[in-house]
Amino acid sequence: MAKEVYDVAIIGGGPAGMTAGIYAGRGHLRACILEGMSTGGQMFNTAVIENYPGYDSIDGPGLTQAMEEQVRKWDVDILYKHVTGLKRQTDVFEVELLGGEAVQAKTVILASGSKPRKLEVPGEAEYQGRGVSYCATCDGAFFRGKNVAVIGGGDSAVEESLYLTRFVNKVTIIHRRDQLRASKHLQERAFADPKIEFMWDSVVEAIEGQQTVEQLQVKNVKTGTVTSLPVDGVFIYIGMFPNTGFLQGIVELDQWGYVVAGEDTATSEPGIFAAGDIRAKELRQIVTAVADGAVAAMAAERYLSERGL
Question: pTM of the predicted model, to two decimals?
Answer without folding.
Answer: 0.83
